[in-house]
Amino acid sequence: MNRRDLLKALAAVPLFGSAGSLLAAPATDARLLFVFLRGGYDANNLLVPTGSDFYYASRPNIAIPKPGADNGALALNGDWALHPALRDSIYPMFNSGDAAFIPFAGTTDLSRSHFETQDSIELGQEVTGRRDFRSGFLNRLAQTLNASGAIAFTDQLPLIFQGGLQVPNMALRSVGKSGIDARQSQIIASMYQGTALQAPVSEGFVVRDDVAKGLIGEMPGANRNAISAKGFELEAQRIARLMKDKYNIGFVDVGGWDTHVGQGAVSGYLAGRFEELGRGLAAYAQEMGDSWRHTVVVVVSEFGRTFRENGNRGTDHGHGSVFWVLGGSIQGKQVVGEQMAITQANLFQNRDMPVLNEYRAVLGGLLQRTFGLNAAQLNQVFAGVKPMDLGLV
């Protein structure tokens, strides 16, 4: 092995924490999976405001019919209902207390730019302050939890995991033969024999092999577009197998939510994405087994969509959204957070759902209860935020 090949091989060795400890077995039973719907999904057709006449007047072609109608929305309470595409997946979880929704949620970023608002969410920093792009909020959380196991199921390490703690990332759609064969692994391990890095390097190869064994068997099926909702069900099962054994903080993103044209209503493009995502989340819960009792799944998007449909029977970039919270230990079967009547007068800038439940405050309350963080620890994750306790955990 020449020097160039050796350096390339070393770069493929699994990552280690800042103190030299491997990011492997979690130190807590609590699990967090953060699911990012990139593209800004239409939350108004996910969590349907069936009590609002303004909703039906604003969406003559794409509104979801009221509960009781053919293929009507699934009633959650007197004000809200769920898209019928989630009838067999998320709706049963809601009714069993394993799912809840937070409307009027989001950031204070007003750019309506995919990239800028995604950055705002992943960084978890004050929008009006100076941004540190080397400090994502999940990295800060992992550091606060003393480098418990964390992993991103993505092609590249996402901004949310950038920071002082090194976090591994793995693209589930491209799991294949390792770039380092057994002979090369032995050569690298022998280089560190007798040094302080001997144990971490050896353990790194063990984790790499364990992850590969858990995923390689279903690699052909994962060749579907794994970062789309269509492939999410298969991904979710794999993620669950790793999360329940190795990791307690995970991140995955799902694309395909920018529905400017031909969004559809009860059926169509968006309904298909909801159905696929719902099946994936249900499969994740089932695969987690007993660990589901200690699991919280948070589903967010960078922003919602315009409340009114556009001329192409779609929706444009908006502001307020709906967050999902799932888990075997949550107090679900609720639509929680600050809310208001959905009327034209209450729209933000006469076009969007307003943000009444600020993103960092909402997540701060969830993380504080899920991981038992004290005020100082929470401040390390979301500086200066007063957490909202929504009674979910």
* Unreliable spans: 1-27, 174-179, 210-226
- Beta-strand percentage range: 5-15%
Instruction: Tell me the total number of β-strands.
Output: 11
Distance between the termini: 53 Å
Query: Which range best describes the helical content: under 10%, 10-25%, 25-40%, 40-55%, 55-70% or over 70%?
Result: 25-40%
Mean pLDDT: 85
**What structural category arises from helix and sheet content?**
alpha/beta
Number of helices: 12
Shape: globular
What Rg do the Cα atoms give?
22 Å
Main beta-sheet annotation: 8 strands, mixed
- H-E string: HEEHEEHEHHEHHHHEHEEEEHH
Describe the structure.
By secondary structure, the chain is α/β, with parallel strands linked by helices. It has twelve helices and eleven strands. 32% of the residues lie in helices and 12% in strands. Helix 5 (137-144) packs antiparallel against helix 12 (375-381), helix 6 packs antiparallel against helix 7 and helix 9 (232-245) packs parallel to helix 10. The longest helix has 20 residues, at 269-288. The radius of gyration is 22 Å and the shape is globular.
